[in-house]
């Protein structure tokens, strides 16, 4: 959300794009990166947010004045033009909270004395727990105090754990009002609700990661001109993050599929996986910014039909059941089969949505996506699922079986 003042909020639009392989697109060193201060109460989800933004390539970096490592942790990725400075969490108790405020102020004063490019704060993320709306005013008051030395530095209010879509706009308004009532002047520029990791609501509903690439784009836009990365470089990085976040959805959906499939009766067909697959598709569509309309519904339906009532799905089930030497009880066998179908369809859906986002395909290409999904349930699928069957056992939990299934499909992905 764009904020033109602390009292006025305008709705922004997140434009999602597909993900590509992770390769550093920029050559950056410590002195060429901007600095983003990440601040928020303990438990707000800063570590999860940082991981979602930077990914597994994030690395702790030496930075700042002596003793900084006891108060701050600095993370960076070779591709992004900014590093993230993670502050000590703000505790609920008065004394601990004010100790954290003093730590940030002391650090900023020491670095202000040097006034070097490497120690200057260029943007601030205020992280606020979206599930604790009643605490917004007190939280923002503490954060404003801690960063009062930087009244002109652009601020992005990041509302973490924004699982409930209906509550997001309400929370944005509450945060905007809380900032406008502060005595400390704050240069609030954006309010962005985020979900940093896939959150399972129930067996067939998930809160998919959202707002991460919008946060990356917004931060880059707010940096001084000397730091901003080229649009194509940021796009390349965010494309990869989308794929990683999408694969986390597939992991959750695969577990759900295994749970649903692990019934003590013979697996009759894949139709029982319909709700799981629909939830998976909807979650992936949100990551890739594919809007729900009549055309996209037909596109989504084509994917679900292949994974539930198609001859390809039934043929895959029959082929797996007929494999010689499979000595699994019905529950374990069904869990592997169901999890494998969901995993294969999930990987296929990611590819399809990437092609749509790239402009190579459109949601009108229902025949193409139907053929794509049928290919995901071909002989190659049976071979991958067979590998998972060989590692599974009757005494294993369903979640363990789901991890085995994921491992098999991830291994196959890595060989491509």
- CATH superfamily (homologous) name of the largest domain: P-loop containing nucleotide triphosphate hydrolases
- Output the number of helix runs: 13
| CATH domain class of the largest domain | Alpha Beta
- Proportion of β residues? 5-15%
The shape is: elongated
- CATH architecture of the largest domain, by name, is 3-Layer(aba) Sandwich
By DSSP, the count of extended strands is 11
Count up the domains: 2
Percent of residues in helical segments? 40-55%
- Regions with little confidence, pLDDT below 50 for 5+ residues: 3-31, 62-70
The radius of gyration computed from the alpha-carbon positions, rounded to a whole number of angstroms, is 24 Å
CATH topology of the largest domain: Rossmann fold
Mean pLDDT: 80
As laid out across the biggest beta sheet, the strand order is: 4-5-6-3-7-8-9
Secondary-structure blueprint of this entry?
Layout: E1 2-5, E2 8-10, E3 34-40, H1 46-54, E4 59-60, E5 72-76, E6 82-87, H2 94-114, E7 123-129, H3 136-146, E8 154-160, H4 165-180, E9 187-193, E10 199-202, E11 205-207, H5 212-222, H6 231-261, H7 274-288, H8 294-308, H9 311-321, H10 330-358, H11 366-376, H12 379-391, H13 398-414
Parallel strand pairs: 3-6, 3-7, 7-8, 8-9
Antiparallel strand pairs: 1-2, 4-5, 5-6, 10-11
Helix pairs in contact: 2-3, 3-4, 5-6, 6-7, 6-10, 6-13, 7-8, 7-10, 8-11, 10-11, 10-12, 10-13, 12-13
Quick structural summary:
This protein has 13 helices and eleven strands. With 416 residues, the protein is an alpha/beta fold.
């Amino acid at each position: 959300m764009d904020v033109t003042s602390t009292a006025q909020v305008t709705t922004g639009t997140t434009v999602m794009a597909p993900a590509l392989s992770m390769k550093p697109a920029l050559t950056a060193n410590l002195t060429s990166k901007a600095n983003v201060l990440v601040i928020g109460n303990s438990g707000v989800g800063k570590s999860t947010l940082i991981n979602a933004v930077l990914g597994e390539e994030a690395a702790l970096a030496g930075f700042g004045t002596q003793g900084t490592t006891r108060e701050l942790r600095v993370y960076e990725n070779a591709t992004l033009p900014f590093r993230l400075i993670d502050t000590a969490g703000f505790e609920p108790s008065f004394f601990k909270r004010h100790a954290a405020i003093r730590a940030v102020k002391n650090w900023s004063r020491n670095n202000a004395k040097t006034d070097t490019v490497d120690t200057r704060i260029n943007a601030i993320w205020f992280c606020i727990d979206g599930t604790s709306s009643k605490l917004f005013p007190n939280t923002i008051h503490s954060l404003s105090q801690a960063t009062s030395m930087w009244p002109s530095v652009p601020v992005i209010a990041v509302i973490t754990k924004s699982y409930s879509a209906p509550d997001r706009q309400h929370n944005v308004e509450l945060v905007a009002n809380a900032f406008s009532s502060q005595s400390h002047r704050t240069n609030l520029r954006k309010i962005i609700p985020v979900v940093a990791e896939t959150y399972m609501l129930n067996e067939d509903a998930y809160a998919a990661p959202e707002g991460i690439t919008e946060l990356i784009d917004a931060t880059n836009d707010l940096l001084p001109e000397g730091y901003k990365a080229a649009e194509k470089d940021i796009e390349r990085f965010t494309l990869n993050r989308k794929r990683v976040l999408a694969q986390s959805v597939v992991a959750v959906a695969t577990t759900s599929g295994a749970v649903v499939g692990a019934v003590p009766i013979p697996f009759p067909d894949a139709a029982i996986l319909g709700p799981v697959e629909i939830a998976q598709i909807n979650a992936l569509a949100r990551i890739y910014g594919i809007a729900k309309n009549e055309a996209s519904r037909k596109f989504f339906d084509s994917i679900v039909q292949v994974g539930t009532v198609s001859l390809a799905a039934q043929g895959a089930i029959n082929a797996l059941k007929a494999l010689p030497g499979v000595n699994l009880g019905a529950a374990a066998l069904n869990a592997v089969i169901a999890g494998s179908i969901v995993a294969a369809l999930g990987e296929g859906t990611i590819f399809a949505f990437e092609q749509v986002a790239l402009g190579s395909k459109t949601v009108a290409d229902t025949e193409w996506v139907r053929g794509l999904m049928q290919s995901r349930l071909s002989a190659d699928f049976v071979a991958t699922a067979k590998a998972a069957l060989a590692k599974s056992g009757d005494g294993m939990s369903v979640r363990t079986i789901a991890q085995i299934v994921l491992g098999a499909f991830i291994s196959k992905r890595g060989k491509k």
